[in-house]
Amino acid sequence: MNNLLIFPVILPLIAGLIFILLPKQIRLQRLLAIITLAIVTGISILIMNQVSANGTQTLQLGGWQAPFGIGLVADMFAILLVLTTSVVAFCCILFSFQTIGRNRENHYFHSLFLFLITGVNGSFLTGDLFNLYVFFEVLLLASYVLVSLGGQKKQLRETMKYVIINILSSAFFLIGIAYMYRVTGTLNLAHISVRIAESGQDGFITTVAILFLLVFGIKAGLFLFYWLPGSYSAPPAAISAVFAALLTKVGIYAIIRMFTLIFYHEPEVTHLFIGILAALTLILGGIGAVGYWDINKILTYNVIIGTGFILAGIAAFTESGTLGSIYYLINDMIVKSLIFLIGGVIIYLTGTSNLKEMSGLIRNHPYLGWMFFIAALSLIGIPPLGGFIGKIFITRGAFEAGYFWLGAIGLIVSLMILYSIFKIFMNAFWGETIISEDEEKGTTKGVMIPIVFLTVLTIGLGLGAELINGYVELAVDGLLNPQMYIDAVFGGNEIP
Amino acid sequence: MKPKANDVILHTVTKLAAIIIFTFSIDLFWAGHHFPGGGFIGGLTTAAGIVLLYLSFDIESIQRNLPIDYKKMAAIGVLIAVFTGLAGMFYGDNFLEQTFGYFDLPVFGETELATAVLFDVGVALAVIGTAITIITSISEDEL
């Protein structure tokens, strides 16, 4: 029992509710939001150290022991993601102060943002399949409003698509849960894992596994991503950065959790299938990123490519592959939010997202330009930046598992990322300066702090990999040995 | 000008029915600890009563007589529920841990009092607030 685990979930919730009671106090809301996310970051670091010292931490809510109660489980993998989430959310809300506009702030932007974080943190920490569904709904409901908030024509059109596809996938999620309960008689993730290990993963359970892969694949943008580029480019930069950094990652987390803890018995079927989907996602995402001339579209296609990479590591299902996936996942959350924020600043400055109508920003904004350059290198995976470690381990994992085609596609798509991101860099920053500082539609005042902070983080993740390697290896251990998770949940109690 | 609707019967029945619905919802709420009932359906039936009032009278006159901001009510409800969960932690128990005891009260005699009721109060407020907010916002015809 460790009551600290509940705080990453309820602190944002409490703060968001207080904001509803004080709708006019925007300054106070900003201050409280910053403080809340800072405290959550601190608590996550505390829990991370406890996990690394004492193993996986659990909290059985209301004192009802597993599998009868609903519990929270923080293994190293989950808490690393909670920590990254808090840091990214902190930066994005700092960015939103200058850019989001008073109108959105008056319409509960801060509450919704924190409810979104509640849902994301809850999904990472929960140890119960139905509870996972509930937290998914919490974050989805908040995201529905955040996509449409502002009410531009484009936003409403994309919201319709976004809501419909997500309601559909939630319905499939419920059907999957019902099948799971029918087969195993339990919804506790650890207990399901035990039951399936006892009875063996037969064809029916593998089918249910594919159903779950479909559900989480829609949320993660794995292959079934056709809704994603539109709805992620509709809202303003602060919101789309959070979406790009966090929402697809929750789907990825759920896939990784389900296919390492529960459905790990038939990797030659399920994991190969993940690998094929990851390869298709990489190729299609790469083509999309290369083909467009719109900053928002290029960046959202890069989100899809990121999903493909992370799941390629999981498909390999070896130690290096998993290690690479976790590194890539953490770096991707940081770098995607960074690059979306910079993309947002470019659009604010020029007033357009079309690359052909902008040029030469580096003369007036050298720091912004070079930070974009660093973010781009990290995204592509150039040493010594954060993206390098993830990519090299994923590629090695794929080769070790004998999936040479998967590793090769990954490397080719890296070149496509390189082309697409440098297309932005060359067109937006280099060339003749066509707009002077007076003609710019916005300013960089007040938005540089979160961008600098995230840039430092992605450099630090590469250079300081030695420091966090211990934590990441613990996370890999936890994922490859489901028994550790199960032992922590049942804590020596008899498993019924 | 539209002719005034002749709705004496509707108004009279609504006044009676609303009292019955509210009483029943409170009964459902209290039944919740050991029998079917509780904060959720207690709150829903209360909301049904309020919606009936809205339907037979009009939104303005009901809001004059029941001046409640239902958005805030929902937020306060969830806050109450979360804080009753936190209370258990001050005694070194898990989050959401509940307790109960038997007390000798005047009039009622020996009565079981449970902290879970406080949690249910929060749930009921949240449900009423959310349900009424949804219904009043979709009833506004301007988009």
Automatic annotation (TrEMBL), chain A:
Keywords: Antiport, Cell membrane, Membrane, Transmembrane, Transmembrane helix, Transport
Pfam family, one: Proton_antipo_M
GO molecular function: antiporter activity; NADH dehydrogenase (ubiquinone) activity
Transport is among the record's keywords: yes
Subcellular location: Cell membrane; Membrane
Transmembrane segments: 6-23, 30-48, 68-95, 107-126, 132-151, 163-183, 203-228, 240-264, 270-292, 299-317, 337-355, 367-390, 402-426, 447-472
Record-annotated NADH:quinone oxidoreductase/Mrp antiporter transmembrane domain positions: 127-415
Lipid bilayer topology: Multi-pass membrane protein
GO process annotations (BP): ATP synthesis coupled electron transport
Chief site of localization: membrane
GO CC terms: plasma membrane
Membership in a protein family: Belongs to the CPA3 antiporters (TC 2.A.63) subunit D family.
NCBIfam families tied to this protein: PRK07691.1, PRK12663.1
Stored PANTHER family: NA(+)_H(+) ANTIPORTER SUBUNIT D1, NADH DEHYDROGENASE
Protein name per UniProt: Na+/H+ antiporter subunit D
From TrEMBL, chain B:
Domain of life where this protein originates: Bacteria
Keywords per UniProt: Cell membrane, Membrane, Transmembrane, Transmembrane helix
Full protein name: Na(+)/H(+) antiporter subunit B
A GO-annotated cellular component: plasma membrane
Family: Belongs to the CPA3 antiporters (TC 2.A.63) subunit B family.
InterPro entries per UniProt: CPA3_antiporter_subunitB, MnhB
Topology class, membrane: Multi-pass membrane protein
Species annotation: Ornithinibacillus halotolerans
Na+/H+ antiporter MnhB subunit-related protein domain residues: 9-132
Presence of the UniProt keyword Cell membrane in the record: yes
Compartments reported by the entry: Cell membrane
Keyword Ribonucleoprotein: no
Transmembrane segments: 12-31, 37-57, 73-93, 113-138
